[in-house]
Amino acid sequence: MISVAEAIKIVRERTPTLPAERVTLPDALGRMLAQEIIADTDLPPFDRSQMDGYAIRADDVKTARARLRIVGESAAGKGWHQEMRSGQAVRIMTGAPIPSGADSVQQVELTRELDNGGAVEILERVEFGKSIVKQGSEIKAGEIVLRPGVMINPAMMAVLASFGYAEVAVGRRPRIAVLATGSELVAVNQKPARDQIRDSNNYSIAAYAQLAGAAVERLPLTGDETPVLKRLIAEAAERSDLVVTSGGVSMGVYDFTKTALKELGAETFFERVALRPGKPTVFAQLPQGTLVFGLPGNPVSVSVTFNLFTRTSLLTVQGSNEPTLKEQWALLARSTKGSPDRESYLPARLNGDERGYLLAEPLKWGGSSDLVAFALTTALIIVPPGVKTLEAGRQVKIAIL
After folding, report:
1. How many separate helices (H) and strands (E) can be counted in the chain?
2. What is the pLDDT of residue 181?
3. Low-confidence ranges of the chain (pLDDT < 50)
């Protein structure tokens, strides 16, 4: 049985990065950036105004109630490109270019126009450089704006557009096949008979995989039959980068996933992790190179092990430079229990208190099949092995979901 950290290390080492592909900018959202993004211009490209008001010279308004002659107007997209002289002012809008000769902007609320718009009275003195964003203050042409390995979010879309990236190189979406096993499973639109349950793992795994950028194929449910399981895994492997099964990986007489993988000639990298919940997690590779994750069948174990291991592989395969769950510290809102021999990843909900501290509230959890409680989970409390109890109020490490 290996540690969680060792298992994650193996996943990262054994997961290859897929070749990049080019997509148009509208299709780049949510994809993994695979190239450096370099500024092709200064940003802002010119000195611009931070607000509506009047472009002026600070020396002209050293005292309040200065009166200046309005000689033009500078608007966004239509600047005033003449020389502004002492005693003059240019009406200016937010984002508009600062006229040559001006060195400050006074906001419109601190001014009053006179003579039917021919002059302006500045009601308060102005400091040199006030309300001006200097050319290149955000970034200079030729500088690297974004580096490979980040997932493109809406704010990054604006950056790509600003610097002319109509197309961009991204990591190819991994193809993942999802297969739930167990003779007790029925489809979601069926009413379970006695001793049966509806399949939920196919849907949670597919949803997690889609959030991680994968293209998902959900395979038909299969019972506890090794030949059928072998055939479905082999067929899926021909068209997938990863195959993810749930169920059939423990030590019972009806747990056939490891048997099927062995008969398919898979190389198993690990099959037991010192983890609660999710100890019987399998990571293997088929002879043709397809990676296989055999996750436990209980829904909470599925969610924990997918996010720790399978998500890491999916992001690594796309070229992510941070493929693991983000970890940070929080205060424990209520006491919680650990495990004598395994690291525990326990469901929690994050909140803030009146002091501004981040609180991790352990959720009432009846075990690895308690999918209803886990539905509210936003983080996992990490309890080191051998720790019987973590008391309320102490700092704990959490993994953000």
Report:
1. 8, 28
2. 85
3. 253
Return the SS3 of 92: strand
Q: What local confidence, expressed as pLDDT, does residue 252 receive? A: 55
CA dihedral 366, 344, 274, 197 (to 10 degrees): 30
Q: What is the pLDDT of residue 225?
A: 82
- d(CA 382, CA 362) in angstroms, rounded, equals 11
Q: What is the pLDDT of residue 366?
A: 67
Tell whether the torsion through CA atoms of 231, 236, 242 and 247 is positive or negative. Answer: negative
Rounded Cα gap, residues 308 and 12, in angstroms: 11
Name the token pair of 230. Answer: 């072998």
Separation CA 234–CA 288 (nearest Å): 10
DSSP classification of residue 309? I
Q: What is the pTM of this model?
A: 0.87
Strand partners, 380: 347, 399
- Alpha carbon distance, N-terminus to C-terminus of the chain: 25
245 and 284 in contact (C-beta within 8 Å)?
A: no
What are the structure tokens assigned to 242, written together? 């990863």
Place of tokens 């006229």: 99
Alpha-carbon span 301 to 383, nearest angstrom: 16
CB atoms within 10 A of CB 110: 15
Distance CA 165, CA 40 (A): 10
